[in-house]
Amino acid sequence: MALSARSLCAQRSCARATRASSGAVACRVQCSSGARQAEPAPLAMVERRELLLGALAAIGFAAVAPPAAQAGLLEGGVEWWKGRRRANSAKLIAPIKVAQQRLQAASAMLADGSGSMLDVLQLVRASSLNCYMFEALPSDSLETRASLFTQSRQLSDPCTFRIIIKNVVDFATDDDRERGAALLSSIILSYQKLDGELEAAVESGLGLGLGGAPGGVEAAGKAAKQLGATLQLAYEMEGFVKE
C-alpha cells in the first residue's frame, strides 16, 4: 500500500536528521498535501540582513544620542581625517617642492647670468604646475602644449596647486577654506604677473642673454623682484599644507 504524504514527509525528515552531524542545524521540513515549503534563506542573505540591521542600529543610536555624544562622534571623524591628511602631506608637498626648486633655479639664472631670459621664462612656466594660460613657445614640449590645450578647452582642471588646496581644506574650518582660496588666487596672479615681466624682458632684447638695452635691464630687475615674491608664496603654500 502506498505511503501517505504525511508519512513520506516524516521519513524524509528522519533521514535528514540522521545524516546531519552533531553540530549541524537540521532544517525543519513542513509538508502540506505532499509539497515542501521553501528552505531557509542562504547564509549570505542572513549576514547581509544582520549587517543592515547593525547599520540601522548605529544610525538610530546617533540619532537618539545626547548632543555631547553626537559632537564627540563628529569630532572623532574629523580628527581621523586630519591624521590621514598629515600622513599623506608628503605627497601633497612634493609638487610644491618641485615648483620651489624650479623658481630657485630661475632666480639663480637671473642673478649670475648663467642662462638666457628665455630659459628663465620656460623654467618659471614649468614651475607653475599648469595653473595659468600663456602662449606656447616654439621650443615648448608636447606635454606643455597638451596642458595648454586642456586648459583652453576646459576639459579638466590641470592646476596642481588647486588640486592640493582642495585636498587640504576638506573638513577644514571656514577660515582655513578662505585662507586656502586666497593663497591659491595670490600664487596664480603672481605667476601671471611674473610671466608678463619676463616676456617684457625677452621682448626688450634679453631673450638671447642678460645683456642688452637699458630698458631690458630694468625689465629684468622687475622680473627678479616678482620672481622672489612668487617663490615666497610657494613657501607659504608649503607651510599651509603642513599645518
UniProtKB/TrEMBL annotation:
Protein name listed in UniProt: Uncharacterized protein
Taxonomic classification: Eukaryota, Viridiplantae, Chlorophyta, core chlorophytes, Chlorophyceae
